[in-house]
From TrEMBL:
It catalyses: ATP + protein L-histidine = ADP + protein N-phospho-L-histidine. Its EC number is 2.7.13.3. The keyword Transferase applies. Keywords: ATP-binding, Kinase, Membrane, Nucleotide-binding, Phosphoprotein, Transferase, Transmembrane, Transmembrane helix, Two-component regulatory system. The lineage of its organism: Bacteria, Bacillati, Actinomycetota, Actinomycetes, Mycobacteriales. Residues 185-244 form the Signal transduction histidine kinase subgroup 3 dimerisation and phosphoacceptor domain. Pfam families: HisKA_3. InterPro entries: HATPase_C_sf, Sensor_HK_TwoCompSys, Sig_transdc_His_kin_sub3_dim/P. This is histidine kinase. GO terms for molecular function: kinase activity.
Amino acid sequence: MDRIVSKPSQPPNYQRIRAAMTLQRTAALTAVICVALTLLGAFLTPIEHQLSAAILGLVFTVITTLGYRWPLGMSGAFIAAWLTATFLVRTPFICSVFLAPIFLAVVAYHGKHSRTIAIGLLLWICGLIDPETLELSIHPAPAFTWGMLIGVGGVIGATFAHSANRYRSAMVEWNNDVKRRQSDLAETLHNSVVSTLTVNTMQLEALSLEYSTQPELAKKLDELSDSMRSTMSEVRALTKVLRNNIDGINDGMSFGSTTKPTSFAQLISEEEERLSRLNRSPIVEVTGEEFAPEFPQEILEPIAAITTEACLNAVKYSPPGAEILISVRPHMGWTVITITNPVAKPTSKNTEMSSGIGMSSMNRIAATIDARLDTDLESGNWQLNLFLPPTAHKRR
């Protein structure tokens, strides 16, 4: 069954932690750390400036969190807020020292080293401004220490970015490897099993004709040849699924789409049409009249692979004529696709009723585009949610 996920080879705790560290949850964790450092910085600030320090720290927290979405614009906002507070209050804020390296780590996470170095240099200069005299105070030891602290933040962010890119590359390579293995297995099945069954079936049919004068023996031979044909059909259906592309592009013989969608609207329209052809009642809901997300082709194809498998699963596990809801909504810069269907016993055992990838592969495909996939069963309805990050959208 497509919903059964095999046991991971890695320890369960490690798997859960890694699956949870998506861009959205990383931003939330960063915000929590920034708030904690803000409170610590306000506590270490003189009493008369503690309120100002807390407010400035919260402003830095918001800017740092938004830096995951708009790193360049938020860099200007961070530096502007820091200089404005320095000129107005004329006192050093410890929260600035705490949060500047974290902000640079967020900037470095986007992987552009030249931008990281430039913004790090600006943060280093801001930290050298004496709040009382408003002049640069360059003393070798403090300046070097402050530069090291800023540098550590940049290195940590770049390290996380490198790790995320390697994980993404590993998932892409995993998909390609599975594709190759599927193709090899399908060829092996066809060449060894199907060919042998074909020869045996022909021999049985020849024997049936040869012993046509003996009705009982001829009947048994015909039953054996019919059984052989049935087995051949099942093996051919299996090889058909194995030949399906791991990216969801099939060979034209299954229910999946044979064409690559060129837009997100076309993708949703094709899924709606497919559900209608398969005797279901699709309902498409898009939140917001002007909400029309766009994705580049290299992002759109993995999305299509996931939605195709999800819709086929919805058909397989729902009763005929059931309403299947496809909803698309924005959420904090993300696009959330939700597919909901009532759950019944599997109504189809046809091996064509699958794109051949299943939940395990769907999660790995989602990882290649920094997306997140989760499922939920509530009140007899199965719900699959695909969270597409802001970085996956087409730049306008």
